[in-house]
Amino acid sequence: MEEIKRTPADAYSPLTLAFIGDGVYDLLVRDYLVRKANRPVGELNKVKVSLVNCESQASFAKAIMPCLREREQAVYKRGRNAAPKSASKHGTLADYHSATGLEALFGYLHLNGEQERINELFSMIIESQDCL
Fold first, then answer.
1. Which of 22, 26, 31, 130 is catalytic?
2. How confident is the model at residue 74 (pLDDT cuts 50, 70, 90)?
3. How far apart are CA 76 and CA 81, in angstroms?
4. For residue range 102-119, what is the model confidence (pLDDT) as tens digits?
5. pTM for this one?
6. Residues whose CB is less than 8 angstroms from the CB of residue 131 and which lie 6 or more positions away in sequence, other chains included
7. pLDDT over 90 for what percent of the chain?
8. Could you read off the pLDDT of 37-54 as tens digits, one per residue?
């Protein structure tokens, strides 16, 4: 099998970082919900959607902003200021941009192998809400 190319996280576009960050964030939410309560899949999905929509993600970004390091803030802002090809049907354009920034941050941290920091920020997000 061919070795996977390793590119520094700084070399990726903010929307590419958001692409991978969306998956990272979604998996964190799913993992959290399953470990929190063994519920029917329909119920789990309903709660998951409430935590991954752009309005919630924008709120979470605001909650963790004071705790972000300088570099993390810069990555968030790059993602927030990126010009996505589409917009959310259910949120404002400002929320969509903030959510993209949050996803870019999670993607950046993931590509840099900073799992401990990802977990730390996700814990702050969970603590900022009544998630279940």
1. 22
2. very high
3. 9
4. 999 999 999 999 999 999
5. 0.90
6. 32, 33, 36, 47, 51
7. 78
8. 889 999 999 999 999 999
Name the residue among 49, 50, 52, 58 with its Cα closest to residue 96: 58
Three state DSSP letters for the chain: CCCCCCCCHHHCCHHHHHHHHHHHHHHHHHHHHHHHCCCCHHHHHHHHHHHHCHHHHHHHHHHHHHHCCHHHHHHHHHHHHCCCCCCCCCCCHHHHHHHHHHHHHHHHHHHCCCHHHHHHHHHHHHHCCCCC
Which residue type occupies 1? M
**Catalytic residue at 22?**
yes
